[in-house]
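Extended Data, panel c. Modelled sequence:
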Amino acid sequence: MTHTPHELHEEFPDQAERLHHLRETDHHFARLADEYHEVNRQVHRAETFVEPVDDAAEKALRHRRSHLKDEIARILARA
């Protein structure tokens, strides 16, 4: 378990301009990025016990974050 936030600009450091551009021009991408940010925030708060959740809930949040990150990576690769 890591307590490091996994922000998109940290996950894709070489894609900062593309991330910004897609957030501004692609509504679907912006929605995915917003959802990623919210789920990532929930994972981080669970990991740091600010908002503790049971193991199954934390695992589900991590899975959702991973799925969103994969979707975002696919869009970045096509852009």
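The longest helix spans residues 55-78. This feature is highlighted in the accompanying rendering.
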